[in-house]
Amino acid sequence: MTDRFVTRGFVGRRRAPERGQRILPGQYLTNDFPVLSAGPTPHTPLADWSFRIEGLVDQPVSWTWEEFNALPSREFMVDISCVTKWTKLDMRWHGVSVDTLLERVDLNRKEAFVIAFSDGGYTTNLPIADMVNDQAFVAYGYDDKPLAPEHGGPARLVVPHLYFWKSAKWVRGLRIVDRDQPGFWESFGYHNRGDPWLEERYSGD
Amino acid sequence: MATLNWQIATVTAVRDETPRVKTLSLLVPGWQSHRPGQHVDIRLTAEDGYQAQRSYSIASAPNEQPVIDLSVERVEDGEVSPFLHDEVVVGDRFEVRGPIGGYFVWDGAATDPLLLVAGGSGVVPLMAMVRHRSHIGAAVPCTLLYSSRTPDDIIYADELARLGGRDDGLRVIHALTRVQAAGWTGYSRRIDMRMLGEVLEGTGRMAQAFVCGPTPLVESVAESLVNIGLAPGQVRTERFGPTGA
């Protein structure tokens, strides 16, 4: 750090060291589950819901809600950091690993990008390397209950090692593409990758 | 896109808006202007290097001066807002960077009528739009439906009364949910679908809606507007929850 600027009189609230280590730079701890979205919460009936993998695959694949729920799934507990500065520890989700989904398609190439797309038109982009090896899930349960609509239910992407806007709510599929292209927030000045450990909040960080 | 560097802001004025909300005017040399609805990040650094960051909406309209106003609601158990309320005086400095956000913005280019729906301090980014509309003399009809608990909690009350009385297409409609002054003739309940329907009568279904407030209000207003018949793309949302701290 260069010459450090100090705000007169600011002390701040320190955390116990064992928790402090889990709070990433510029983040603060919350016990709430804040809701953020750019528009109205979509309410797609489960009978009309499907999840699709398309793009650079030999054969696109699509699951109905029932089929999706029959896929191997598991519980996972992770810390989540939102670019709006809150971090919530030990969030308990239930869902399907993206690895499980990608097993059902033949990817034409290994070094590709993924555009996650959602009801309501939201998109976000991720390198496929951030989506494999149990780093990413499509979650439909939270805290032993179905995932609530305002939190992205019936199903949302959960990619805990990136800022939470990458964890697209109301996700309906993954499009595999060979060239990266910015998603919704990435087009409005947010960072293309969004690694919270590196504080990649905005473009240029 | 250019990197958003931290810049040193100097407090040039502190104003009480309500018992729980203060406005800080910040001089930010080199400020590159902003669009109404955008926010900034602020960063406070303690003597030992400990830092805290928060986001605050910009309340002021863009103008020629490198000055921005932030209106900050006090969150009692918060880390940052009590400091901004109790400690900060004119001449103090902290770091800011921005402007941030590009979806929840209205910069006067669009011609659709505006429906601005605010709950509590969610009015702040919407006030930037109201002020900007007035500054540029835009003819776009604009309705602000603003829910507060009590008359004392209405932020920018005098300015809104003045701007709303100009007969230039701005309507300011208050809803008071807990306490109403004697003789109050406005809405005396939370914003609901019937209220939104009545307000939309004067706005038209082509309105572009911006909704900002605590999550329950935003969720219910956005859903009601869609149920009334607005397309989801006509409804843009932003939160001003208690976790702003």
SSE blueprint:
The complex is a heterodimer of chains A (205) and B (245).
Chain A: H1 17-20, E1 28-29, E2 50-55, E3 61-64, H2 65-69, E4 74-81, E5 86-97, H3 98-102, E6 113-118, E7 123-127, E8 137-142, E9 145-146, E10 156-158, E11 171-177
Parallel strand pairs in A: 1-5, 2-11
Antiparallel strand pairs in A: 2-3, 4-5, 5-8, 6-7, 6-11, 8-9, 8-10
Chain B: E1 7-18, E2 21-27, E3 39-45, E4 51-57, E5 67-73, H1 81-86, E6 93-100, E7 114-119, H2 123-136, E8 142-148, H3 157-164, E9 170-176, H4 193-201, E10 208-213, H5 215-228, E11 235-239
Parallel strand pairs in B: 7-8, 7-10, 8-9, 10-11
Antiparallel strand pairs in B: 1-2, 1-6, 2-5, 3-4, 3-6
Could you describe the 3D structure shown?
- The complex is a heterodimer of chains A (205) and B (245).
- With 205 residues, chain A is mainly beta.
- Chain A has helices spanning 17-20, 65-69, 98-102; strands at 28-29, 50-55, 61-64, 74-81, 86-97, 113-118, 123-127, 137-142, 145-146, 156-158, 171-177.
- In chain A, the strands form two sheets. In chain A, strands 1, 4, 5, 8, 9 and 10 form a six-stranded mixed sheet that branches. In chain A, strands 3-2-11-6-7 form a five-stranded mixed sheet.
- In chain A, β8 (137-142) and β9 (145-146) form a beta hairpin.
- Chain B is of the alpha/beta class and 245 residues long.
- Chain B contains five helices and eleven strands.
- Chain B has helices at 81-86, 123-136, 157-164, 193-201, 215-228, and strands spanning 7-18, 21-27, 39-45, 51-57, 67-73, 93-100, 114-119, 142-148, 170-176, 208-213, 235-239.
- In chain B, the strands form two sheets. A six-stranded antiparallel sheet of chain B has the order 4-3-6-1-2-5. A five-stranded parallel sheet of chain B has the order 9-8-7-10-11, with helices on both faces.
- In chain B, α5 links the parallel β10 and β11 (235-239).
- The model of chain B has no long low-confidence stretch (mean pLDDT 94).
